[in-house]
Amino acid sequence: xxxxxxxxxxxxxxxxxxxxxxxxxxxxxxxxxxxxxxxxxxxxxxxxxxxxxxxxxxxxxxxxxxxxxxxxxxxxxxxxxxxxxxxxxxxxxxxxxxxxxxxxxxxxxxxxxxxxxxxxxxxxxxxxxxxxxxxxxxxxxxxxxxxxxxxxxxxxxxxxxxxxxxxxxxxxxxxxxxxxxxxxxxxxxxxxxxxxxxxxxxx
Length: 203
Known about the structure:
mainly alpha
């Protein structure tokens, strides 16, 4: 049903995008809530990361524009409406992840008026490239959130469930060392606890 026939064209496009965003609430991630009551969805994940950026902004690289970093975090997983969440340690799923997500970005951001669609797409591309201070910090928080969840629950979370090794976890967490170096000691401590508890393979 077309709800927007009597609206200005710009607003009609904006509302189509707003309604489309609601679908992100239904995309389930592999990561569970810390209390393990259920899996988180991608919209919750994006909100959590944006709030983490406010709380942990002091650990961003020097001269990071925190507002822009938050924009990247809010936008970066919108593509999962079409592409779904791809588990970080799913080698096969990650082979075509970029192609699936790029097609999703073209469709979803294409719902917006051209100027806004271009802005959203630029933010998504910036996050994916991971080159700017803002993107480095945003990517670091994206990795850090999963580590916090796996560590805080005390059960190893997805690391234990999928038999992930120490080297694989370190490789996944590597962007934190440069994107938020002040958080790196917390990463090493969490991994050490997981190894000691047998939740991460030390091989």
